[in-house]
Amino acid sequence: MSSLTGAPVATCAVAVDVALLTIRAGRLQLLLVQPDAPDLAGRWALPGRRVRDDESLDDTAHRALAELASITAPDAHLEQLRTYGDPARDPRGRVVSVAYLAMTPTTRDPQDRHRARFWDVADLGHGPQLAYDHDRIVPDAIERARSKLEYTSLATAFVEEPFTLAELRQVYEAVWGVRLDPANFRRKVVSTEDFVVETTGFAPPGPEGGRPARRYRRGGAHRLHPAMLRP
Predict the structure, then answer these.
(1) What is the pLDDT of residues 62-101, one digit of tens each?
(2) Which of 40, 54, 122, 178 has the greatest count of CB atoms below 10 A from its CB?
(3) Which residues in 152-191 are b (16+ Cβ under 10 Å) and which e?
């Protein structure tokens, strides 16, 4: 292909990569898949696909999750993280990636665990070897999730409704990697306008017994005032 001046114009593909975070067994986990490229055997990557002419970026993100991990998450929180365009990021040619952050309640294992699996975020530094430039994308996605829990209500994207305040607190503890005082956490949550709304009924007691916990659903607030600052 040439420009009007006769100089060659480089072709560039557009792809979408999805950092899907969830909480399983009280631990923050990230979905990774094995790339299709034979020269990347043994490495892991975020689910990603090149954008088709007839689909939106959001549609490509959902298609990547479905095709590479057999995961459908239509109700997951999905937002664009940033665009990555280093010329050497993909050895197959020039590919610009629009990275997404997805957050969803605990989900089942992918059907083929040899091709796709959830990894503990705490193990990523000494666990899977990441392909492409995903060692840049993954930390950006994790930090975005951690920071957004401070000033938005997106912690509720990790839990199914109705939920208890203890379940919501476990989200913050898993994402931030800290322990929070239950009484202080409860005070902050219930005093934040329209963060959560109490529902009828109680959750069954846990294995250690105790009083049944009240249940809540998501409120209408998107931004938290005051913010839930990390310790």
Answers:
(1) 999 999 998 888 778 999 999 998 887 777 778 899 999 9
(2) 40
(3) bbbbbbbbeebbbbebbbbbbbbbbeeebeeeebeebbee
pTM: predicted TM-score of the whole model, two decimal places:
0.88
Topology at the third CATH level for domain 152-218:
Arc Repressor Mutant, subunit A (1.10.10)
Condensed to tens digits (0 to 9), the pLDDT of residues 151-208 reads: 999 999 999 999 999 999 999 999 999 999 999 999 999 999 999 999 987 777 665 5
| Token pair 């913050």: residue | 172
